[in-house]
TrEMBL record:
Official protein name in the record: HTH luxR-type domain-containing protein
UniProt keyword list: Membrane, Signal, Transmembrane, Transmembrane helix
Signal peptide: 1-20
Ranges that cross the membrane: 351-375
UniProt xrefs under InterPro entries: TPR-like_helical_dom_sf
Keyword hit for Transcription: no
Coiled coil segments of this chain: none
Domain of life: Bacteria
Keyword Membrane among UniProt keywords: yes
Organism whose genome encodes this protein: Duncaniella muris
Length: 548
């Protein structure tokens, strides 16, 4: 009962400790992340209600900073302060959370784009793009590519803008995300127009009008018509441009800028009167962003002085753009990014080389150990074979030196092994090869088992010794009732004439010195024995010096 109560209290303490270590707003942050795509306004409201000072732990603060920046972006709130998103980037760069790092880098790049820090933005967006490719996240590949294309557009790098606009459209299509696909088509159409690839631009813009009709997106349809009209103007196809802007006018979507463009199209076509009528109704002043349009209007109205003034403004504006582009150092930023990537790849390559060297070294060591163990095993095996051969030779000597009186009895006792011993010795002398030694070794191992562990054979040996040595084994048990089995068998094997080597094997002693030590102890015990047979026993123990 007390033990169960202790376990319950321990679990409660662990639960409280776990709760106290986590941020109290963790669940709320996760809830906001879950509804971010569908309900960004609700996510923003949830995240703004969380006091940052109540957030515990670097992870909670970093995730909150990332999601708050993302929610503001999705709600079209322009961020220029990078303190929040920098916290997220710094934290996720130190973790294995590639998805959140990708998002943090993307919004860090977007924020710097808003600040017109294009070089810094481009570096972050390249990193986000690479992470999206590594994660095979088609949607975020497209999002990063779109931002990169926007940077190149702002800096008049048209070739690079086309490349990433195409990547944007391809991956939005693979992600099956609308309306992102339609607006990616719009981006690519404008990019082709900037590159003067007017057929491609017109084809995409026309495709966009069809898609807008399919999805009942009138706003997108008007943008598509305006884009088509602008493309035709830039391509000097003024009649086609007039048709596009008239379609806008019929939908009551013709704004002041569109009217000016339509007037310019009239001016360049066969309708100068319509152009002047329309242009006179428009307030296209010198402050207009359409300076080139204003210049052409001035020329059409024979306002040479005004046209010259506009040209000067255009020159000053162009010069300003050139200085801005040169100050961005996009090429330097791109070079720094790829230099950093190259260093990372070199570091990974060095690590791979070290790993290969380590594996090869470990393999060499393991192979060396295996070879050492194998050769040691072979050496021990050969030694065992040599020992068994020595025993076989010793057995043959025992048979040869026994007196004729006991020869018949010994042959009867060892009848099942004598023929084997004789053949083993014959093989030994006639074929002293390793194969022969192995055969002898196997047979001798069996004999050792018979004369060391087989109770029936040991009893036969004991009866034989008692029969031919006046019941000496019986007398030893009577005179030394406390004698242990090993000492008793030592005397038995000694009387039979076995060498110390053979006796060591029979008794299971790993070293022959153990037999010498046992003889010394037994001899000392016999010297203190009060028996008329003491001298006989000592003589038997001393027989070990005769047979080695």
């Amino acid at each position: 009962m007390h033990r169960h109560l202790f376990h319950f209290i321990l679990l409660m303490l662990l639960s409280l400790l776990s709760h106290s270590c986590s941020s109290p707003h963790t669940h709320t942050i996760q809830e906001a992340e879950g509804i971010m795509d569908q309900y960004p306004d609700s996510a923003l409201s949830i995240l703004e209600d969380i006091p940052r000072e109540e957030l515990r732990g670097s992870q909670a603060r970093a995730l909150h900073a990332l999601l708050l920046t993302q929610a503001r972006s999705k709600n079209y709130i322009t961020e220029t302060n990078d303190s929040l998103i920098s916290t997220a980037v710094s934290y996720f760069e130190s973790t294995d959370d590639s998805h959140h790092l990708m998002l943090a880098l993307h919004y860090f790049g977007e924020l710097n784009f808003n600040r017109k820090a294009y070089a810094r933005s481009l570096t972050a967006l390249f990193k986000a793009y690479d992470l999206a490719v590594r994660l095979d996240n088609k949607f975020w590949i497209a999002m990063s590519a779109r931002m990169i294309a926007d940077i190149y557009h702002e800096n008049y790098h048209t070739a690079e803008e086309i490349e990433f606009s195409e990547i944007e459209l391809e991956n939005f299509r693979l992600a099956h995300r609308q309306p992102h696909i339609n607006y990616a088509i719009l981006d690519l159409a404008k990019t082709y127009a900037d590159a003067k690839e007017y057929p491609k631009a017109t084809q995409l813009a026309t495709q966009l009008t069809d898609s807008a009709t399919k999805y009942s997106d009138n706003h997108l349809k008007h943008i598509a018509l305006r884009t088509i009209g602008t493309i035709h103007l830039r391509n000097q196809d003024y009649l086609a441009a007039i048709r596009s802007f008239k379609a806008l006018r019929s939908s009551n979507q013709l704004n002041q800028s569109d009217s000016a463009l339509l007037g310019f199209a009239y001016l360049k076509s066969e309708f100068p009167d319509s152009a002047l009528t329309l242009l006179n109704r428009q307030s296209i002043g010198r402050g207009s962003s359409n300076s080139w349009l204003y210049y052409n209007v001035c020329m059409a109205l024979d306002s040479t002085q005004a046209a010259l003034s506009v040209l000067q403004g255009i020159a000053m504006h162009t010069d300003s753009i050139l200085r801005s582009v040169m100050s961005q150092n996009l090429l330097g930023s791109t070079k720094e990014y790829y230099d950093a990537q190259r260093k990372i790849q070199m570091a990974n390559l060095r690590f791979s080389h070290l790993t290969i060297i380590f594996i090869l070294t470990c393999s060499f060591i393991a192979l060396s150990i295996a070879i050492f163990i194998f050769y040691r095993y072979r050496r021990n095996k050969y030694k065992l074979i040599e020992d068994n051969i020595a025993i076989a030779q010793n057995l043959r000597e025992i048979i040869a030196i026994n007196d004729s009186k006991s020869q018949e009895t010994i042959q009867t006792l060892l009848a099942d092994r004598f023929e084997i011993l004789d053949s083993l010795c014959k093989i030994l002398y006639e074929s002293p090869s390793s194969v022969a030694k192995k055969r002898i070794s196997d047979e001798i191992n069996f004999i050792i088992f018979q004369y060391s562990q087989n109770a029936e054979k040991l009893n036969e040996l004991e009866l034989y010794v008692n029969k031919h040595h006046n019941n000496i084994m019986v007398r030893i048990k009577e005179d030394i009732p406390t004698i242990n089995e090993s000492d008793y068998r030592l005397i038995l094997y000694t009387i039979l004439g076995f060498s110390n080597t053979a006796i060591a094997l029979f008794l299971g002693e790993p070293k022959i010195t153990a037999i010498y030590d046992r003889r010394k102890r037994l001899k000392a015990k016999l010297k203190n024995l009060n028996s008329s047979h003491k001298a006989e026993y000592l003589t038997i123990i001393s027989l070990s010096t005769k047979i080695k």
